Amino acid sequence: MDNLVTDLAAFIRQQGKEPFYGVMGNPVAQSKSPLIHNAALKANGLSGSYYAFEIPQKSFAFVGQLLSMPGFRGMNVTIPHKSRIIDILDSTDPLALEVGAVNTIAALRNGFAGYNTDVHGFVETLRNSALLIAGRPAVILGSGGAARAAVASLRELKADHAVVVSRKPVDTARSWPSAINRVRIRFDSYASLPSLLREAGLVINTTPVGMFPKTHASPIDAGTAQFLKGIVCMDAIYNPFQTQFLKQAEFAKAKATLNGLPMFVHQAAASFRIWTGKRFPVAEATELLEVELKNNI
Amino acid sequence: MAHQRIEVNLPLAKVYESLNSPVDFPRFMTGIEEVNKINSQTFEFKTTIGGEEYKWTTNIIDDLRNTRFAWITINGNLNQTGTIRFTPLDNGTRTRIDFTLDYRPFFGEAEGELKTFIDTSEEQLQKDLEAFRDALENGTFKEQTEVSDKEQAAV
Fold it and tell me: Do the two domains A4-116+264-295 and A120-259 of this chain adopt the same fold?
């Protein structure tokens, strides 16, 4: 069966007791999750398949039916359902509640439980740079769900506090808490970036700016990019591998440049572990994705 | 801050499910006398140190199934924070536990018996985790839990 399931109603009618996992969202056609999760199931000798379910907002009512099927084992959740899904779950991990988004659902004995493994993805990606991050502010570009997960990850990395940079910092401050996962948050604008970067140990781009196909765009201008020198720079984007932002960082002699591929793989690994208790083949999945993405360029 | 690492010859899911409920902590943590569940996220801990009763309320702040379990103290007369990390070994058939536990008073420095309790917490945690591992591997940890559940049901 194809990885991409477009006709959800047909899947619900046809699927028997065969174990299944999936990602639900809209759009999901571009999702690489089926590729790596099906490889992980195979590597662990587990039965079942992982599918992509395209579920627009108007079809959200089908989600309950999908999760209630006897073969359901686990689901990843992506845009636009990450917040709304919390309402239909029986329990949600406190950290996911603080972040305000669930990206993983598991069927437990006492009902459906929600988790956020994006935080884990950020932590694992940045763990090797933790010494360079600890005790200094971290600058987060963007104010969406990924930015909240990035802020939550800073506790484990022992950053001093987060500065969330957005185009409308006053509006952002109104809709955000003052701390997530006990990480204090300040809000500022792109105009303040030069002074913010002088203090920062880490900067993470969580905006979609620079994502394929608009690969020449960057969230920061050329003049500001010189202040990336000596800083750990991460882009949550993994397509392309090296975004314009990471090119700027490398040119400015950043301390490290990290793309979003390890983050994507590690969030998947945490989801897989939640569902199966088994090891996710991180290195093999990374290699698969690298080949797949290179073929698509 | 006390940190101990131990490996258990049991699958990750089983080990996680035996450690993700603080009410079971007194079964292997000798420094904790009683834990009562207030709601799904909040637990009240009690213990006695040097004849003095310590009571504190914790909130679970992170419960990533089969990966991590963490809590902080929100009020009481002893500030406890804990993080348990679970790592699958040998394709999930064995499990590594990293247990971090920190005790400190809310005000001032620890003194007397409390200071001794905190200073020896690392050593104690090691003994407690070894006892936990042994009980879990030989099946007695589950039996203790089941007996306790029956006792509660009888009440």
Answer: yes
Is the pLDDT score of A48 beyond 60? yes
Task: Write the pLDDT tens digit of every residue in B67-102.
Answer: 999 999 999 999 999 999 999 998 888 999 999 999
Asked if the Cβ–Cβ distance from B59 to A115 is below 8 Å, we say: no
A94, A181, A278 ranked by CB distance to B63: nearest: A94
Q: Report the C-alpha gap between B146 and A209 in whole angstroms.
A: 54
A115 contacts on B by Cβ (under 8 Å): 64-65
How does pLDDT run across B9-53, given as a tens digit for each residue?
Answer: 999 999 999 999 999 999 999 999 999 999 989 999 999 999 999
Burial of B51 by CB count in 10 Å (0-12 exposed, 13-18 middle, 19+ buried)? exposed
Which residues of A are the active-site residues? 82
Interchain CB distance below 8 Å, A277 and B92: yes
Query: Tens digits of per-residue pLDDT, A171-184?
Result: 999 999 999 999 99
Spell out the domain ranges in chain B. Answer: 2-154
Q: Residue A59 — pLDDT band, cuts 50, 70, 90?
A: confident
Residue bearing tokens 């009683």? B34
C-alpha–C-alpha distance, residues B131 and A258, integer Å: 42
For tokens 């290179």, the residue is A294
Q: Would you list the DSSP string of B31-92?
A: T--EEEESSSSEEEEEEEETTEEEEEEEEEEEEETTTEEEEEEEEESSEEEEEEEEEEETTT
How far is Cα A127 from Cα A118, in angstroms, rounded to an integer?
14
Residues A148, A142 contacting (CB under 8 angstroms): no
Measured between beta carbons, which residues in chain A are less than 8 angstroms from residue B60?
Answer: 94
CATH number of the A120-259 domain:
3.40.50.720
Answer CATH for B2-154 from 3.90.1280.10, 3.30.530.20, 1.25.40.10, 3.40.50.1240 = 3.30.530.20
Its sign, for the CA torsion A280, A281, A286, A289, is negative
Give me the pLDDT at residue A6, please. Answer: 56
Residue B12 tokens, joined: 């990750």
Whole-angstrom distance, CA of residue B138 vs CA of residue A231: 50
pLDDT for the residue numbered B145:
55
Chain B, 69 to 88: residues with Cβ < 8 Å from chain A are 72, 88
